[in-house]
Amino acid sequence: MKKREFLLNALVMAASSLILRTANIAYRVYITDKVGAAGMGLYQLISSVFLLAVTVCTSGISLAVTRLVAEATGSGRPSRGRNAVLKCVLWSGTLSLVSGGALWMGADFIAAELLGSEAAAAPLRILVPGLPFMAVSSCMRGYFVALRSAVKASAGEFLEQFSTMGTVAAIFLYFAPSGLENACCAIMLGATAGEILSCLFNLALYLHSVRKNRVPAGAEKTSFRSVAHIALPSMAGYTARNILSTIENVLIPRGLKKNGASADASLAQYGMIHGMVMPMLYFPSAFLSAFSSLLVPEVAEACAAGYKRSIERLTCRSIQLTLLFSFFVMSVFWAFSGELGLAFYKNSDTGNILRILCPLVPLMYLDSIVDSILKGLDQQVSSLKYNFSDSCIRVALVYFLVPQFGVKGYLCVLFFSTIFNATLSIHRLIVVSRVEIRVLDWIVKPLVSAALAVSLVILLENLIPGIFAFGTWGTAAAHAGVSLILYCSFLWMTGAFTKPDLQWLVGIFRAVPRTESPSYRKPLESRR
């Protein structure tokens, strides 16, 4: 794949991801205004249960489509890729009917016994009809990613997000649902409508792409075994992890209540962390999430072709850029958490928790990139093991620590879990790809540069009061912008980002096809 094509796709997906995350944050602010922090907590609980059903029918299937279509395209067998899409749609569609039926029949029990609120039953049932449409959309997005069609991969997500927001806003505007149950029903109805519209749109784009590229039906078939080889480990891992995650999410409000909080206060505390702070922490990773999704087909093709050196170079660059970016984000969150909390949610408590959790940002972002590279290297079984172990430990820690220490106990769980999972994944990638982590250039120098940058901004504001006084959002943007300029300057002066790095970035804009010397054309050997 040409480097310029990769960059353009990454930029398109990064821009769309940034817009979508901005819209999602705005949507959450809107929901919080309508239902309050306790309502946001109930919304998060309902979403965590529904996510389990979504996981059963979609987890691993987008990866399977991407891998199978990319490999078929790379080997000159496009008809095999088309058949792979069909097999994956049948796979995920069948699972969506099974999981949806189970959720519909068990909604009353889940709401009363697990979530502790009978008001959750109706919203859960409203979400069920959207499952088959989500399953098909997941397959379509995997297909577009495999073809590096970033615009098409993002278009359906745009339609889903904004149609959901529009539907919910219209319901609240014209019908003004009263009570927590009716408000949640309105929110879930908007989500289902968005999924249906997005699926129909994605399906139309797929059919147009097949006709435009004249992909024949062909006699080459993809077996369900090939689909299962890729999808089952991810599905099993994500399903098991989400079962444990659902248990964890149920245990958190209960543990907070045992620690002395009221029912509404426990839901509010849970909603603040999961519904407000965590989206803020992941918001800047919009740039990386687009890059990580494109890494899967890129690494898969290089792995299939035996381009070991390409894999090593791509892995090193991915780790380097992720760390450089994440240390800057962490420093901004730490230095300006108070005003960011007020800017997003008009809530100082949100900023306090954001400052506590921001040191996890580098590991959170790096873990996402590493996970994508491992999937491209056919190491999804290892990811399954790490994720499952992490989830088991989280449930145990939540069960024992939250009732005893409350919110502080849960924050400790988040720290341990992030460090544990990221450490295992990074170690596996080092073993498989044989990359070397340059601690001084990738960690020490960026960390010091980021700390100096935000410190100078704070010092400047103290010396010249009002220099960044442009309103809540303007001040936050000015702080981040000036910090970024200083950070980049310090990276250059310390040698953490050098002329060869800049030349590599500039070279991406040139359409240079991937080449390998003969010594690197041997297939990758299996490593443990």
TrEMBL record:
Keywords: Cell membrane, Membrane, Transmembrane, Transmembrane helix. This is Polysaccharide biosynthesis C-terminal domain-containing protein. It comes from Candidatus Gallacutalibacter pullicola. InterPro entries: PG_synth_SpoVB, Poly_Biosynth_Transport, Polysacc_synth. The chain crosses the membrane at residues 7-30, 42-65, 85-106, 126-146, 158-175, 187-207, 318-336, 442-460, 466-492. It is a multi-pass membrane protein. One of its GO terms (cellular component) is plasma membrane. It is found in: Cell membrane. Pfam families: Polysacc_synt.
